[in-house]
Amino acid sequence: MPDYSSRLNLRISAQKTPALVGIDPRWDLLPAEIQAAAKSRAANRWERDAWAFESFSKQLIDIVAPLVPAIKPQVAFFEQLGFPGFRALHSVMSYARRVGLIVIADAKRGDIGSTAEAYADAWLAGEDPEAAAWPADALTINPYLGTDALQPFVDLAHQRNAGLYVLVRTSNPGAAEFQDRISDGRPLFETVAQTVQRLSEATRSADQVFGCVGAVVGATWPAQLQQLRQQMPAVPLLIPGYGAQGGTSSDAAGAFNTDGFGALVNSSRGINFAWHRQPYSEQFGEIRWQDAVAAATRDMIADLAQYTPAGVLQQASPEVFPQF
Question: Angle, nearest 10°, between helix axes 222-231 and 188-203?
Fold first, then answer.
């Protein structure tokens, strides 16, 4: 059975891009037509928002599924709605799996012992979407509690051909407050990176480039991103910070190997709500918001192809891609 990195990279090679679309629905930014339809169907605010989030997210999926390899639903936006939100999230994730997308649940879970095992069992469906309560191919996790908190996730991910993305160097400005703290003569994020490399290497077979344990490293720290790519050669990277947070495709270039593999670059707000900003607001407006989303996605794909090693993906034939 194909492991997570193999499945991901086959999907990247098929779509010829490492673009990742985050699913971050927010009521006040939704198209008026979806808001109106939701209001007519719901008994309360949570039911209203959940219906709107599900409808909007599935329409996003329909638009981007032919273009990108993966999506990343942000669990928090659904969780804030209680049970209706969780029901909507499950429906959205299942829908994405059915149309062939890799689904990365951005839940940033982390705990120790049996609690970590329970989180892993809940979220890491991996190759079989029916293997867990939540049909995620991969999950973001927090390493702050130590290696014993990571190991239950790693063990089950390896068993189910699922993936993990450990927070190593996050994209937010305040990341340096803790992650840059010097420990044993080096920043804490480098110590975490060393552990992530070791864990991923242990899940990698001899004929594979990457293991199932990935890392989250922000495009907003380009020099450190390039350094961490070298420090973690067996680790697939998830790159937030592109677009709305200020990171550019050039900033993300250091995440990739020369063959164009090794990373997914995420954009959420910049694609989800593209019609709210130029040039898409003028070109399409809210009435054609779906066209704005498609155009923003294609523009991101072209941008990554022009300014990162991922451009070679668009030039290669499928038969020349490396074995994963």
Answer: 40
Q: Nearest 5°: phi and psi at 55?
A: -60, -45
Q: Exactly one of 16, 39, 58, 108 is catalytic; which is it?
A: 108
Q: What is the pLDDT of residue 318?
A: 54
Sign of the dihedral through C-alpha 273, 278, 280, 283: positive
- Assess whether 108 carries a catalytic annotation: yes
Domain ranges of the chain: 4-316
CATH architecture of 4-316: Alpha-Beta Barrel (3.20)
Give per-residue pLDDT as tens, 135-181.
Answer: 999 999 999 999 999 999 999 999 999 999 999 999 888 888 888 78
Q: Report the amino acid identity of residue 133.
A: A
Q: How far apart are CA 155 and CA 212, in angstroms?
A: 10
Q: What is the pLDDT of residue 181?
A: 85
Share of the chain above pLDDT 70, in %: 97
Three-state DSSP class for residue 256 = coil
Q: Output the pLDDT for position 177.
A: 82
Which residues touch 107 (CB under 8 Å, ≥6 apart)? 75, 123, 139, 140
Pairing relation of β-strands 237-239 and 182-183? Answer: unpaired
**Which residue intervals of 186-283 are DSSP H helices?**
188-203, 222-231, 249-252, 269-272, 280-283
